[in-house]
Amino acid sequence: MNAYYYIPSSTTFSGVFWVEKQLVAKVTHFFGKISVAVLEVSADLKVGDKIYVETSEPFEQEVESIQVDKENIQEAKPGQLIALKLNGKARPGDMVYKVVA
After folding, report:
1. Rounded Cα distance, 46 and 82, in Å
2. Which of 13, 34, 78, 97 is the most buried (most CB within 10 A)?
3. CB within 8 A of 43, min separation 6: which ones?
């Protein structure tokens, strides 16, 4: 299921524009000192994808690496538990979306 969120922008007429997002994972653990989240993946996620983390202070970032059992992988599949370095803070239960458009 895809959804939309808006980003304030001074370059658009209305001051905002809408971006499509697709749910790809849920945060199960977050290690604050190293800023790494464990995610339960629900849709394909690849290195290079842009993600939106819906938390108390939402943020976007590009997926730079994905790890499973301390091994780098290029793509995560539904059902996998993965480790992902985040540029912000997350909490268990937070949702992670892939930016589609």
Report:
1. 11
2. 97
3. 22, 23, 24, 25, 78, 98
Q: Where exactly are the structural domains of the chain?
A: 23-99
Give the pLDDT score at 94.
97
Architecture of the domain defined by 23-99: Beta Barrel (2.40)
Say if residue 21's pLDDT is above 80. Answer: yes
CB-based contact 63:17 (threshold 8 Å): no
Letter for the amino acid at 55?
T
Query: H or E segment at 59?
Result: strand 59-62
Distance CA 85, CA 101 (A): 23
